[in-house]
């Protein structure tokens, strides 16, 4: 294994590692606190979520479906990133935060074994799985620079949804709509991790991968986009007629379910208790008691799509500056935005002032765009 140095000269328009030195210092302190609590000297980070969080937005992937092309050892002496030799020049030039030592192995080498061996500790490092709950706690409160990046991404994504969906027509196909969304997301320097669309002929599917079907009279689009490691999530609806009374009623009731979830999302609340509130809210607002079983309900957001998905077994607690994406759904209805809990309450991040809204419990929520 060799240690690389960054000799690349950034070109005009080239990417610069997005990380904030101030944020990264706090993150390192949080990891050292975990090591202190565990009586250990090093921790090996290997998953996309942990690496993106600790490196503060560095891209350490090639394939969106593949494993990271780097592993990182945090020990008391410093931070050591190990990547394949054929990836090192890009990592060094565009993704490596200051204060991180870069090491390389051949493309056929074992990243995890190599990373475990570079530190100064005398025993094997902790694995992520050993401290999974502690790592979730470490990343749940977003820091100032990453909160700013998240806000920019979320607002841009909301604008993209408005731009693309407002040009749709009944004869537009689902593939046509999501391909236009994907193009705009990529042009914004982000990665479309999830693209869903259902036209009126497929409205019963809650995770509708796109097809060649036309949108028809009503459609839903969902995008989850990642930039600098952070993932923004959004759902929007459009229709080409006035809608039915049943549709309007269901849209109002699912927004009321979401409002109850927002009301329960307060500092100190436990996720399992919010989950119980979600179950009760479905019944309270006229949906079947089994509706929560038809689709996951969301949860904390940020460097994972949900971190974690809320269930009856999730006992993490809510903190200020934490981000969430709740996504209650019922037959032919769903509502979803990325929000952040601030001292003044929940702030919707995926917002575009051009999109029509309705006020629910004092908060502006997206309505269906009628075209």
From TrEMBL:
Chain spans, region Disordered: 1-20
Keyword entries, A-Z: Aminopeptidase, Hydrolase, Protease
Classification via InterPro entries: Creatinase/aminopeptidase-like
Listed GO MF terms: aminopeptidase activity
Entries under SUPFAM superfamilies matching the protein: Creatinase/aminopeptidase (SSF55920)
Name the UniProt record assigns to this protein: Xaa-Pro aminopeptidase
């Amino acid at each position: 294994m060799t240690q690389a140095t960054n000799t690349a000269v950034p070109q005009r328009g080239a990417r610069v590692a997005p990380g904030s030195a101030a944020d990264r210092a706090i993150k390192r302190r949080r990891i050292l606190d975990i090591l202190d609590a565990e009586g250990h000297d090093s921790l090996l980070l290997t998953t996309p979520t942990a690496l993106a969080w600790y490196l503060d937005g560095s891209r350490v992937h090639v394939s969106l479906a593949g494993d990271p092309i780097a592993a990182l050892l945090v020990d008391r002496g410093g931070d050591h990133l190990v990547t394949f030799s054929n990836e090192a020049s890009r990592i060094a030039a565009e993704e490596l935060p200051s204060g991180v030592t870069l090491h390389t192995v051949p493309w056929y080498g074992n990243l995890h074994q190599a990373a475990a061996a570079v530190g100064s500790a005398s025993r094997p490092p902790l694995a992520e799985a050993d401290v999974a709950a502690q790592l979730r706690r470490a990343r749940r409160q977003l820091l100032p620079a990453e909160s700013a990046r998240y806000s920019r991404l979320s607002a841009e994504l909301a604008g993209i949804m408005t731009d693309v969906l407002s040009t749709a027509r009944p004869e537009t196909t689902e593939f046509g709509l999501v391909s236009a969304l994907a193009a705009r997301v990529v042009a914004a320097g982000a990665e479309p991790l999830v693209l869903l669309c259902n036209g009126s002929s497929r409205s019963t599917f809650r995770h509708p991968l796109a097809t060649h079907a036309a949108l028809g009279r009503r459609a839903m689009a969902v995008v989850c986009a990642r930039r600098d490691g952070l993932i923004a999530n959004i759902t929007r609806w459009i229709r080409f007629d006035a809608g039915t009374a049943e549709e309007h009623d269901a849209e109002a009731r699912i927004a009321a379910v979401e409002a109850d979830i927002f009301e329960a999302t307060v500092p100190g609340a436990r996720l399992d208790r919010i989950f119980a509130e979600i179950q009760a809210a479905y019944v309270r607002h006229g949906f079947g008691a089994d509706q929560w079983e038809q689709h996951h309900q969301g949860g904390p957001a940020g460097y994972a799509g949900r971190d974690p998905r809320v269930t009856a077994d999730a006992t993490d607690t809510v903190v200020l500056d934490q981000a969430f994406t709740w996504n209650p759904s019922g037959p032919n209805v769903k509502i979803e935005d990325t929000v952040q809990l601030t001292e003044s309450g929940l702030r919707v991040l995926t917002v575009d002032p051009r999109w029509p809204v309705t006020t629910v419990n004092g908060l502006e929520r997206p309505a269906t765009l009628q075209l």
